Amino acid sequence: MAQLYFYYSAMNAGKSTALLQSSYNYHERGMRTLVYTAEIDNRFGEAKVSSRIGLSSPANLYNSSTLLFDEIHTAHQREAVHCVLVDESQFLTREQVKSLSEVVDILDIPVLCYGLRTDFRGELFTGSQYLLAWSDKLVELKTICHCGRKASRVLRVDQQGQPFKEGEQVQIGGNERYVSVCRKHYSEAITTGSLQAIYGNQHPGQD
Ligand SMILES: [Zn+2]
Known about the structure:
Thymidine_kinase_CS; ATP-binding; zinc ion binding; 6 helices; metal-binding; nucleotide-binding; alpha/beta; about 30% helix; two-stranded antiparallel ribbon; about 20% strand
């Protein structure tokens, strides 16, 4: 039986690396995968998933109007698909998460989604909300705060290292604008308006 998986984390937990490793494991056994990533994330300027350790894979782009079930069904009819992997899955709509669960239930293809749980305000992304609600398997990819505790929050910081309290949920750019922190240090940074509680006088861009 195929299952719907959600691998979630704060930033910088190696999500893309984990996705590429899983895809590679299928290829090694002569199986075919379909890789998706969000069109909104154009960090690398083209349709592919790249990891910081140098791995990459071509990818299909999705946006909020992509009909995922239809696309995957068509591809599967042309040539059997053994696994679907979705990066940046926090950007999926509710309907798209439903479509992916139908890929699992009707087409019997496992779907592995990788994404962020919450935004820099600590609010769930829409895709993550429904993946948390409907996935068969939830797997947390852990990363740590500067203090050694588990990082469960993401701070968005400006160039001077001041954390944002409000703003648009989506602002894709380099990771230097985001810092993974534990809940305690998230609160302290927001309350004091600086990262000094976390880093002392060290520059946050170095982490
Ligand atoms: Zn901490």
